[in-house]
Amino acid sequence: MASAGVDEAAAAAAAAQPRAAISHVIFDMDGLLLDTEGFYTEVQEKILARYGKVFDWSLKAKMMGKKAAESARIFVDECGLDGLLTPEQFLEERESMLQALFPSCTKLPGVLRLIHHLHANGIPMAVATGSHKRHFALKTQNHQEMFSLMHHVVMGDDPEVKAGKPSPDIFLAAMRRFEGNVEPSKCLVFEDAPSGVAAAKNAGMSAVMVPDPRLDVSYHKGADQVICSLLDFKPSEWGLPPFNE
Ligand SMILES: O=P(O)(O)OC[C@H](O)CO
Ligand SMILES: [Mg+2]
């Protein structure tokens, strides 16, 4: 019979085993690096209120992370607005409101600490966002330094991204653009959206989810790890260099 000391040592050794041997990191942007999801919610609530309807988090869960056209189709279909509003009209209506809001977006907690840490330790990083080029420029105009630490950025309107999340296209494109021959199993994706977590898993990568607390826990399934904030992320659990704190 093993002594308590031996059992404890075995448990400690198992706990010290990383979940994966990660060499490359891919960040989602909206709702993960930048606090922009609230802007989409605010604008969509306003549009829906005109039709006497309420925007809720089950609809939000379906739309977030998707390319604009895909998310607009979901909005019209799920809200029963066929014949009243086309996806194109929805995108047009929300555009000026979003354009006014995006430049004021802020970074989410823990973002800078983690990105500076990974950069200082030579871990290659990329961004894979469903956001298209024009919106990306508005959102990132006050965050240039952070994005300059990324090896590259892949956006939703990139020709290699045939389908939006949950298709693995965007994460596989991001992986291929790193130097060398990188395997999906070596890539760790950070995501806030259920469709983004599914896309990462469909790409064969590991996924850490940092969901909005209003998202029902049923949407957490599929993620390899769920944390409340990037401040709670422990790099050593993923074979990455630990914080020196
Ligand atoms: O979460 P992201 O960065 O993929 O962006 C997707 C949309 O632009 C917003 O949900
Ligand atoms: Mg996101």
TrEMBL record:
Keyword tRNA processing in annotation: no
Entry's EC annotation: 3.1.3.21
GO biological process: glycerol biosynthetic process
Gene3D superfamilies the record matches: HAD superfamily/HAD-like, Putative phosphatase, domain 2
Catalytic activities: sn-glycerol 1-phosphate + H2O = glycerol + phosphate; sn-glycerol 3-phosphate + H2O = glycerol + phosphate
Similarity remark: Belongs to the HAD-like hydrolase superfamily. DOG/GPP family.
PANTHER family, sorted: 2-DEOXYGLUCOSE-6-PHOSPHATE PHOSPHATASE 2, PSEUDOURIDINE-5'-PHOSPHATASE
Name of the protein in its database record: glycerol-1-phosphatase
